[in-house]
Structures are given as C-alpha cells and as structure tokens.
Amino acid sequence: MVDQFDVLKVLRNSFDNGTTRNLKFRRKQLSNLLRMVEENMTDVVEALEADSKKIHAEAVAEIEVFKNDALHMLHNLDRLAKPRSVESNLVNILSKAELFPEPYGVVLVIGAWNYPLVLALTPLLGAIAAGNCAVIKPSELAPAVAQLIADLLPQYLDKSCYTVFLGGPSESHQLLQNRFDYIFYTGSTRVGAIVAQTAAKHFTPVTLEMGGKSPCFVDSSVDINIAAARILWGKAVNAGQACIAPDYLLCTQEIEKKFIEAFKKVQKEQYGPNMKSSKDYCRIINKNHFNRLLSLLEGQEVVHGGNHDVDQLYMDLTICANVNPDSPLMRDEIFGPILPIVRVRDAFEAVSFINSKEKPLALYVFSNKKSVVDLFIERTSSGGVCVNDTMMHFSCDTLPFGGVGYSGLGAYHGDLTFHTFSHPKPVLKQPMNMCHEALMNLRYAPYNDMKIKMVTLLMKKRRTFFSKQFFLYLMFTLFGCLITYVIMEYGKSIESAFLSLFK
Ligand code: NAD
User: Fold this and answer.
1) 3-class SS at 370?
2) Closest CA to 402 of 132, 107, 122
C-alpha cells in the first residue's frame, strides 16, 4: 500500500509539473512504446502463446492490431492534440470558441486476460497521447504477458510518468482505493460494477469495456454455408474467449437443421476431421473456466462436438440445439466454444428475445432482407452491430468500440482512443477592443427595451446559415454593393481625377 502510494505520488508530481503535456515528449513516449513491442516481438509472441494458449497466428494478429493502433496515434497526434475551433453564435461572432483537449491527470488502466497485450497497451496509447500519466494493471490470468509488460515498460517509457502494478483482485482492489483522474477498465460486468462504485466515491470518470451475451440471428435469405463459416470463425477465434464472440444463435427450426449441417461441413474444411490435433485452434485459459464451461453443458442436447480433455484444457467447438431459454447456458456470457441454438418463429420473436435480456456488446444479423436488418438495427440496443458477419466491426477503426448498459460505458479505437483520455475543455476567447465592447455594452445596466430587444435577437437560436461564414459572405456582399454604388455614382469624377494625375 505504502509502495503504491509513493509511486503514485511520483506520477502525480510529473503530471503537475507538466512533463506529459509537452507534445514532443508524448510523441517520443508513443514511439518508444511501439519500439518496445517491435524489438521484443519474439518474447511477446511466446508470452501470449504461453499464457492464453493462443495459436501463433492469433498472437501475431494481436501484436499487429497494437502496432496499427500505435501508428494511428503517432500519425494523428498533432491533429488530435490541437485545440479545435467550433462555430460561435451571433452574440459571440467576434469571439473565438474552441475545445481544448485537456489531459485528465493520473489514469488507471485495468486489463483483461483474453487479449492481454492490446487490452493493456492500446488504452495506454490514448493515455500517453492525451498527455496523462498512467498506471497499468494487466490481468493476473495472463502472468507471462503481465510480467513482460512490467519488465519492459520501464526500459522504454519515462518511469516517473508511467508504471505497471501486477496482481489479482486484491491488489487491484487496493489500487482502486487511491484517487485516479480516470479509470479505463476491461473485464467482466461483475467486476465492472465494483470499479464503477469505487470510482463514484471521487466522481472519477470511467470507461467500462465489458462483455455480455452477443446474439446472432440467421434467416433463410442468406447462403447458409457462408453464414456458418462466419459464425464458426467468430466462435473459434481464441476458442470463443472473446468479448464479441457470437454467444448464441436465434433461428427457426428449419434453419437450425441446415445451419448444423453447414457448420459441420465448414469445420471439417477449415480444421480437418480432428479438431483437437489442429494447430489452429487454441485451448481454454484455465481449469476454473474449463469446469465452468463443462457444467453449462449438463442436461443439454449436444448435436455437434462435445469432446473435451481436461488435462489439455481442450474443448470441441460444440453446438447445443433447441436450448431452453431459461437454462444456465442462456444466463451469463459463455466465453467459450459452445454455441447454443434457441428456436424462434421469426425475426420479430428474435428481437423480443434479445430485448428481454441485458444489452449485449455486439449483435449479429445474417439476412439479405433490408426490412429484417433494419428491424434489428432499429428495435434492439447493443454496443455495436455487424450485418452478415461476426466480429469484423472491431477491425473498422473509424467505428467506436464499446458497450451500452450491462455491456459497457464509453468507447475507444481510432481517434476515440485519444478523446477518451482527454476532457474537451470549452474555451471562449473574447477580443479586448472598442468595437467588441460596443457589442458587449448591450448586456450592461441600465437596461432598456431597445437593449433587451437587441440582446434577445442576438441570442436567438438560428439555423446554421447564420454562421461565421454567413456573416463573412454578408460583409463581402455589402462591401461589393458599396463599391458598385460608389463607381456608379462617382465613376465619372473618379475617372477624370485619375486621368488628371497623368496629365
Ligand atoms: P475479470 O473481471 O475477472 O478481470 C478483469 C480485471 O479486473 C483483471 O485485471 C482483474 O485483476 C481485475 N479484478 C478482478 N477482480 C477484481 C476486484 N474485485 N476488484 C478490482 N479489480 C478486480 O475479467 P477477465 O476474466 O479478465 O475477462 C473476461 C471478461 O472481460 C469477459 O466478460 C469479457 O467479455 C470481458 N472483455 C471485454 C472486452 C471489451 O473490450 N469489451 C475485451 C476483453 C474482455
């Protein structure tokens, strides 16, 4: 506790003396962080493979995601860190209104284990870029990655501004007793509630990146083989241990039958006849999670997969058909390679079913009918929607990534990773001259009807054509009219005066 307190004091001092506000400093730290991952690629890949039993391709993909996030931040830092001008209304027409991106201060980033590198380091990119000091608390369930981050970070980043604390729930709990200026948390909804409650004591703003049961709907208008391939991919990546993995499938009984056949066929094509021996399919993180998943299968009608090996923490991609909506399998986020199918009569029943549950992180709708797609987009609520695919919306960095309700609060990715870690402070700069003072004079006492009318007029909400540009156009037009009038009225005399100069 004392140790944590002392380290946080150093960070607080660094923030207070303005070290992290310097743009050159931020740029250097960002490129050092990128260099840290690039120069230690082999160690990072090994740690990812050791901890989360990741397959090589997925470990490399995770690193590439981080590298692209870092490059985005480096390429856009100047633009993002600049105060942004905004339009002002008529009463402030001579003023300058802008949003100044102010760093929060000392921020805390708590990571989850399933993508232990990006979930700890991508928020750190935002924290650094926006000018904060930061504490990183990686997940204890990915100990090799956590230790590697703790060892490498002080070698590449300024120790007085950025630090790593290791540990599990009790260390994390202890850490939260300190006052932070922003908390960025990724993990389960259960712990998210604890983080939010603790943060509320100091009105600390939070981003909560959580999970939930992300539903998937398939209708008869799509190619069932393509739908099966895309859903299978979403469930097989990291063995379903992804926050946006499709959690369960909603479809009619007719589609259910066709889907199971297509799924079996596609799985064989991609992973061969024996999934267990495939080098492209990973394992369950630990025995606790393995046993939790196994218990969910009790009493279910397993129509595909179902094999498992506790010693190797291996579990087949498993489909349970005609699942009772009230069964434990349908209660909490599965976070594993099990796909329950719940039968519905049509899209409307699917929408009602989704709306009877907490808001999910992602929603997947497979349909070529616009009316069906629109129904899901307009009549359900979720962190994000991906039409005719799974998980790919995550890869589009112009789309915010985050949940709503029980699946999260706030979002990040792309520019938003910067904005999440900065307060857009509104600043109004008033000129100090007689012209402006003449306008501002209207607000001073003594008041009269004329002043009140003028102020009311200037303050009225207007359409956008009463913007600064409109005002400038108006001035140009009036000036043009004035010149034309002068030429027409006094053209002859101006001309003769001009000619007389050369006589
Ligand atoms: P978790 O909630 O068990 O742990 C998350 C973090 O919280 C860890 O660093 C852990 O040490 C810490 N923690 C645990 N108990 C705590 C407590 N009592 N007080 C303070 N901190 C505590 O989650 P997990 O098992 O690591 O991750 C899986 C969950 O994360 C899933 O629900 C998944 O959907 C979600 N997730 C969400 C996203 C996203 O971006 N939305 C990404 C990955 C995972």
Assistant:
1) helix
2) 122
Domains 2-210+415-425 and 215-402 are alike in CATH topology = no
Residue ranges per structural domain of the chain: 2-210+415-425, 215-402, 462-503
Structure tokens at 218: 């398939």
Mean pLDDT, rounded, for 81-95 = 89
* Catalytic, out of 58, 62, 209, 333: 209
Residue 9's CB is within 10 A of a number of other CB atoms, namely 12
Instruction: Read off the pTM.
Output: 0.91
Spatial distance between the Cα atoms of 153 and 33, rounded to a whole number of angstroms = 8
- How many residues does this entry show for the chain? 503
Residues framing ligand 1 (Cβ under 6 A):
110-115, 119, 137, 139-141, 168-169, 172-173, 176, 186-188, 191, 194, 209-211, 243, 333, 335, 361, 403, 408
CATH architecture of 2-210+415-425: 3-Layer(aba) Sandwich (3.40)
More confident residue, 482 or 121: 121
**41 Cβ contact list (under 8 Å, min separation 6):** 63
Model pLDDT for residues 410-438, shown as the tens digit of each residue? 999 999 999 999 999 999 999 998 888 88
**Residue 267 pLDDT > 70, yes or no?**
yes
Say whether domain 215-402 belongs to CATH 3.40.309.10: yes
CB contact at 8 A, 383 and 361 = yes
**Paired tokens of 478:** 């009036």
Residue 192 CA, ligand 1 centroid: distance in Å: 7
